Write the C-alpha coordinates for this entry.
Amino acid sequence: MTLSRRRYLAALGGSAGVALAGCGGGDVNRTTYEAESVSAPEEVSDYVSASSNFDGTMVDLTGRDEIEVTVGVQGNGSYYAFGPPAITVSTGTTVTWRWTGRGNAHNVASQGGGPLNSSLTAEEGHTYDHTFEQSGVYLYKCNPHEFQGMKGAVVVE
Protein backbone atom coordinates (compact mmCIF):
# COMPACT_ATOMS: atom_id res chain seq x y z
CA MET A 1 0.00 0.00 0.00
CA THR A 2 1.36 3.39 -0.94
CA LEU A 3 0.72 6.31 1.40
CA SER A 4 -0.12 9.62 -0.14
CA ARG A 5 2.17 12.54 0.65
CA ARG A 6 -0.67 14.23 2.57
CA ARG A 7 -1.27 11.14 4.76
CA TYR A 8 2.45 10.74 5.38
CA LEU A 9 2.83 14.37 6.40
CA ALA A 10 -0.27 14.18 8.59
CA ALA A 11 1.21 11.25 10.46
CA LEU A 12 4.56 12.98 10.74
CA GLY A 13 3.04 16.36 11.64
CA GLY A 14 1.51 15.08 14.86
CA SER A 15 4.92 14.54 16.46
CA ALA A 16 6.12 17.20 18.87
CA GLY A 17 9.28 19.02 17.95
CA VAL A 18 9.55 17.68 14.43
CA ALA A 19 11.75 19.29 11.84
CA LEU A 20 9.41 20.64 9.22
CA ALA A 21 10.45 21.37 5.68
CA GLY A 22 7.70 23.33 4.02
CA CYS A 23 8.25 21.64 0.72
CA GLY A 24 8.94 18.28 -0.80
CA GLY A 25 11.84 17.07 -2.84
CA GLY A 26 15.54 17.47 -2.30
CA ASP A 27 15.55 21.20 -2.95
CA VAL A 28 18.13 23.13 -0.95
CA ASN A 29 16.00 26.25 -1.39
CA ARG A 30 13.57 25.38 1.37
CA THR A 31 12.66 26.73 4.77
CA THR A 32 13.11 24.30 7.65
CA TYR A 33 12.11 24.83 11.26
CA GLU A 34 12.38 22.87 14.48
CA ALA A 35 8.88 23.59 15.70
CA GLU A 36 5.64 22.15 16.94
CA SER A 37 2.83 21.42 14.53
CA VAL A 38 -0.66 22.53 15.53
CA SER A 39 -4.02 21.82 13.94
CA ALA A 40 -5.05 24.49 11.49
CA PRO A 41 -8.31 26.31 12.23
CA GLU A 42 -11.19 25.52 9.89
CA GLU A 43 -10.84 28.82 8.00
CA VAL A 44 -7.21 27.97 7.16
CA SER A 45 -7.92 24.32 6.34
CA ASP A 46 -10.78 25.27 4.03
CA TYR A 47 -8.60 27.76 2.16
CA VAL A 48 -5.23 25.97 1.98
CA SER A 49 -6.50 22.38 1.62
CA ALA A 50 -6.09 22.44 -2.18
CA SER A 51 -2.32 22.81 -1.77
CA SER A 52 -0.61 19.42 -2.05
CA ASN A 53 1.95 20.23 0.66
CA PHE A 54 -0.69 21.17 3.27
CA ASP A 55 -1.50 18.38 5.73
CA GLY A 56 -4.04 20.10 7.95
CA THR A 57 -1.47 21.43 10.39
CA MET A 58 0.41 24.68 10.82
CA VAL A 59 3.96 25.33 12.01
CA ASP A 60 3.81 27.11 15.37
CA LEU A 61 6.45 29.85 15.15
CA THR A 62 5.09 32.07 17.90
CA GLY A 63 7.69 33.89 19.94
CA ARG A 64 10.06 34.46 17.00
CA ASP A 65 10.75 37.95 15.68
CA GLU A 66 11.47 36.94 12.08
CA ILE A 67 10.15 34.09 9.96
CA GLU A 68 10.88 33.05 6.38
CA VAL A 69 8.47 31.39 3.96
CA THR A 70 9.82 30.03 0.69
CA VAL A 71 8.03 30.89 -2.56
CA GLY A 72 8.21 28.36 -5.39
CA VAL A 73 8.78 25.07 -3.56
CA GLN A 74 7.81 21.67 -4.92
CA GLY A 75 4.06 21.18 -4.75
CA ASN A 76 0.89 21.16 -6.80
CA GLY A 77 2.53 19.47 -9.76
CA SER A 78 5.60 21.70 -10.05
CA TYR A 79 7.17 24.52 -8.05
CA TYR A 80 3.76 25.99 -7.24
CA ALA A 81 3.71 26.01 -3.43
CA PHE A 82 4.67 28.05 -0.39
CA GLY A 83 6.86 26.40 2.22
CA PRO A 84 5.58 26.07 4.83
CA PRO A 85 2.03 26.70 3.58
CA ALA A 86 0.55 27.66 6.98
CA ILE A 87 2.20 29.20 10.04
CA THR A 88 1.24 30.70 13.40
CA VAL A 89 3.19 33.74 14.59
CA SER A 90 3.01 36.36 17.34
CA THR A 91 1.98 39.97 16.77
CA GLY A 92 4.98 42.06 15.77
CA THR A 93 6.57 39.22 13.79
CA THR A 94 8.10 40.01 10.40
CA VAL A 95 7.50 37.37 7.76
CA THR A 96 9.85 37.36 4.78
CA TRP A 97 8.85 35.48 1.64
CA ARG A 98 11.94 34.40 -0.35
CA TRP A 99 11.72 33.28 -4.00
CA THR A 100 13.49 30.12 -5.22
CA GLY A 101 13.45 31.21 -8.86
CA ARG A 102 11.52 28.05 -9.79
CA GLY A 103 8.01 27.61 -11.14
CA ASN A 104 7.83 30.81 -13.20
CA ALA A 105 6.83 34.19 -11.77
CA HIS A 106 5.07 34.24 -8.39
CA ASN A 107 3.64 36.84 -6.04
CA VAL A 108 2.16 37.01 -2.55
CA ALA A 109 -1.31 38.56 -2.53
CA SER A 110 -3.94 38.69 0.21
CA GLN A 111 -7.12 36.76 -0.52
CA GLY A 112 -10.05 39.15 -0.78
CA GLY A 113 -8.02 42.28 -0.11
CA GLY A 114 -5.63 42.83 2.73
CA PRO A 115 -2.11 43.91 3.51
CA LEU A 116 -0.12 41.45 1.37
CA ASN A 117 0.69 42.63 -2.14
CA SER A 118 4.12 41.77 -3.53
CA SER A 119 5.35 42.25 -7.06
CA LEU A 120 5.17 39.40 -9.56
CA THR A 121 8.68 38.06 -10.16
CA ALA A 122 10.64 34.91 -10.97
CA GLU A 123 13.92 36.28 -9.60
CA GLU A 124 15.75 33.84 -7.33
CA GLY A 125 16.48 35.41 -3.96
CA HIS A 126 13.85 38.13 -4.32
CA THR A 127 12.21 38.90 -0.96
CA TYR A 128 9.03 40.49 0.27
CA ASP A 129 8.52 41.41 3.95
CA HIS A 130 5.48 42.17 6.05
CA THR A 131 5.28 42.80 9.80
CA PHE A 132 2.02 41.55 11.30
CA GLU A 133 0.91 44.09 13.92
CA GLN A 134 -2.66 42.83 14.44
CA SER A 135 -3.91 39.39 15.41
CA GLY A 136 -6.06 37.56 12.91
CA VAL A 137 -6.04 35.11 10.03
CA TYR A 138 -4.26 36.26 6.88
CA LEU A 139 -4.95 34.13 3.80
CA TYR A 140 -2.80 34.65 0.74
CA LYS A 141 -2.11 33.22 -2.70
CA CYS A 142 0.05 33.46 -5.77
CA ASN A 143 -2.23 35.07 -8.35
CA PRO A 144 -0.95 33.18 -11.43
CA HIS A 145 -0.96 29.79 -9.65
CA GLU A 146 -3.93 30.07 -7.30
CA PHE A 147 -5.99 27.68 -9.44
CA GLN A 148 -3.20 25.09 -9.03
CA GLY A 149 -3.39 25.36 -5.25
CA MET A 150 -0.61 27.84 -4.48
CA LYS A 151 -2.13 29.23 -1.29
CA GLY A 152 -0.89 29.97 2.20
CA ALA A 153 -1.94 31.30 5.59
CA VAL A 154 -0.49 33.22 8.51
CA VAL A 155 -2.37 33.11 11.81
CA VAL A 156 -1.26 35.93 14.11
CA GLU A 157 -1.88 35.52 17.83
User: Anything to note?
Assistant: The chain has one domain: 5-156. Residues 1-30 have pLDDT under 50 and may be disordered.
